[in-house]
Amino acid sequence: MGLVKSKPFNTDLQIWAMRSRYPNFKAKRKSEFEIEFTGELNVKPELPTYKVSITYRGSSSPVVRVISPELVPDPPHFYKESKSLCLYHPENFKWAKEKLIANEIVAWTAAWIYFYEVWLQTGIWYGPEASHNAIKPQV
To answer: What are the pLDDT digits (tens) for 15-34?
Structure first.
């Protein structure tokens, strides 16, 4: 009996879920285990439409980038090195390859855009945030 090769990442399910929930997003397979979804989000009629890319990478956290409009330098909740959005703190939410981009990441991206637009107008980030400098208790 031969070995059955199982797919470590269910990319077909990711694509199906995105097409079902966000049909305006296009899927591009970058490798056997990586998909880049690109589409537009308009979180409120009076705000600009944002073009974003969301890269599913299996068990690694998705990478979410704003393609347009260009973000201001040093926005809050943003990874400078990868030029990607910080949507959650890894201690508060654990990404797993079985989670669906369509169920988690797109809505959080829309929320980030909304809070970013409010921050541009007020200088205050009203969205949820976790301290990145928290001192861990010693065990």
So the answer is: 999 999 999 999 999 988 89
pTM reported for the whole predicted model: 0.86
> For residue 131, what pLDDT is reported?
65
CATH number for 11-122 (one of 3.40.50, 3.10.110, 3.40.1280, 2.60.40): it is 3.10.110
**Is the pLDDT assigned to residue 136 strictly greater than 50?**
no
Q: Give me the DSSP letters along the chain.
A: -PPPPPPSS-HHHHHHHHHHH-TT-EEEEEETTEEEEEEEE-SSTTSPPEEEEEEEETTEEEEEEEEESPPPSS-SSEETTTTEE--S-TTT----TTS-TTTTHHHHHHHHHHHHHHHHHHS---S----SSPPPPP-
- List the domain boundaries for the chain: 11-122
Mean pLDDT, the chain, rounded, equals 88
